[in-house]
Structure formats: structure tokens, C-alpha cells
């Protein structure tokens, strides 16, 4: 029989660092997503031209921005963050599909999707319990 002693301060400190890193990653993602969504909702010329270049109808840019804005707001709210991440995953999946169709690089949307989930995973204990990447049980 083995006895393992874990210093709770060390575990809490490591957990706090992870949560802080998750919040920073999420905050950076949120800032980018909000800027992109607001530019689309306001029909900023850069967003409209960029969307048209990728083949989107210009009259749909605002609708896409509203969908992105709602998804991002849901991601910001802790209680609905997982739903927001799921919706953002769908949005970014659509962005990847458009980039493939347009012959553009798709790495940005792919990496961004990973960052959205990584930030949420690090800051949300319930998600970490739901999807454990390591088995912390000792035998």
C-alpha cells in the first residue's frame, strides 16, 4: 500500500496558473472575435470587401456578423461558455470551408478554433472534469 502526500498549495497554484492562462487565451480570442463581429455588423468596408473576395454575398455580411456576435457573447458568459464554444466551432468550420473553396490558407481558423477550446478548457473546471486528458487516479 502506498501513501501519496500532495501539497494542496502546489496543486492550487498550478490550477490557478492554468486558469489564468486560459483566461488570457480566451480574452485574446474574444477581443478578436468581437472586433470581427462588430466590423461585420456595422458593414465596415474592410469586412465587406474581404467577405466579397471570399465569395460571400455582400448583403449577408451583417447576418454573419450577428451570428458571430451572439456566439461570442455566449462564449463570454461562464454559464453559456460551452454552448458559445460549440457555436464558434461551427462558425470557424464554415470559415475553414470557405478558405478551402477560395484557395486561401486555412491554418488561422483552425488554430483559432483550438485556442477557443484551449482557453475554455483551462478556465472551466467542469469541462476539465468532463473531458479529462489525464488519468490522475493512483493504483
From TrEMBL:
It is found in: Membrane. Keywords: Membrane, Transmembrane, Transmembrane helix. It is a multi-pass membrane protein. GO terms for cellular component: membrane. The keyword Transmembrane applies. InterPro entries: DoxX. The keyword Transmembrane applies. The chain crosses the membrane at residues 20-41, 61-77, 82-100, 106-122. This is DoxX family protein.
